[in-house]
Amino acid sequence: xxxxxxxxxxxxxQPSKPSKTAIRKPSLPHPHHPIIQSQRNxxxxxxxxxxxxxxxxxxxxxxSPKLSRALAKxxxxxxxxxxxxxxxxxxxxxxxxxxxxxxxxxKHGMNLQVIASPDGTIVWVSGPLPGSxxxxxxARIWGLVRALAAAGFLVPADxxxxxxxxxxxTPYKGKDKPESLKDANHSHAKLxxxxxxxxxxxxNWKILTKLRCCPHRAGHLAKAIHVLQNRELNAR
Length: 236
Prior knowledge:
Layout: H1 6-10, H2 34-40, H3 46-62, H4 67-76, E1 83-90, E2 101-102, E3 107-116, E4 122-125, E5 129-130, H5 135-141, H6 144-150, E6 155-156, E7 168-169, H7 179-203, H8 218-235
Parallel strand pairs: 6-7
Antiparallel strand pairs: 1-3, 2-3, 3-4, 3-5
Helix pairs in contact: 3-8
């Protein structure tokens, strides 16, 4: 993200506000970028830089689609099914850390629910919930199960969503399954695979490999990344 008013910022003028920011493909900061200057000059204000970063993230997050709009667009685009998956954004441990511990992942973090298209494009990202929240519970909290059923989508999902409803297709459980069920699970995994790639897209951004700010900012950051990635895809 680069400011359209960078030339003015170099001359000491007030940088343009995020509402006037030109959103471009993310790149390494320019040597004259305010973050670099504040590191070189002790008098530089990290508070000011941090405020602009937070405001820009909030602006991008606000542009991410609401669930109903995202599903309507998916239907308009002719998608026959959508993939639902949860991902854990690791965090630094906090004082009251028990609610943030995920037994599934064996680490502390925030639970995000992600809806992806059959080609792995992110369709929608939820807000954050503590890592101890089970994926199915999280999906119900965000209204995903009901909304996906109402929109008429079939939904391949992993075993964490067993019991979500007839439209949510999960793998067959149990050992010593007959070959027919093994084949069905293999086909199911192929359908579900792009959802895992969608989660990997989020974590390609270093800030989400381990969150070191307030854990509850995970959702805003993920939504902002979603907007940037879709913008990049549309520009191709």
